[in-house]
Design a protein that fits this description.
Blueprint lengths: L1 E3 L6 E4 L3 E5 L4 E6 L4 E2 L1 H14 L5 E6 L5 E2 L1 H9 L3 E7 L3 H16 L5 E5 L2 H9 L2
Parallel strand pairs: 4-6, 5-7, 6-8, 8-9
Antiparallel strand pairs: 1-2, 2-3, 3-4
Length: about 130
């Protein structure tokens, strides 16, 4: 894991499975690499890494799933029950990701998640939703 602080007032962390970028707008972007199958332990590590970068307890997270990625049920449960987030936007690229995302929304309601979660196809719409008061 590499963490750097570029001069543009953002923090970047690279891992073997993803890249985190904390922008000056306060949104933490999680870009999951392509062609991965994410299970519970990988999801737990991503949540841990996210909260180590932005540890205010008010993290607004934008998750961008890579091409051909799969999120296991265990990974979805980890993301749905994580603490320390206020809003999570899930960027979908295709119909299958949208179906997985919709299942995650349903699971979050059932688990009474502590944060808001929403699916998006457009990055600017996701950012606007994450930044609203």
């Amino acid at each position: 894991m590499n963490v750097s602080q570029p001069t543009t007032n953002r923090t970047v962390m690279e891992t073997s499975t993803c890249r985190f970028i904390l922008h000056e707008n306060g949104i933490l972007y999680l870009y999951i690499h392509d062609d991965l199958s994410i299970d519970g332990p990988e999801a737990q590590q991503m949540v841990h890494d996210a909260l180590s970068i932005e540890h205010s307890g008010q993290t607004r997270l934008l998750i961008s799933i890579g091409a051909n990625d799969e999120l296991s049920f265990a990974a979805q449960r980890v993301f749905a029950s994580a603490k320390g987030f206020t809003r999570v936007a899930f960027m979908t690229r295709n119909r299958l990701q949208a179906e997985v995302g919709q299942f995650l929304v349903t699971m979050m309601r059932a688990l009474k998640s502590s944060y808001e979660f929403k699916l998006f196809y457009d990055m600017s719409d996701a950012e606007a939703w994450l930044l609203r008061p």
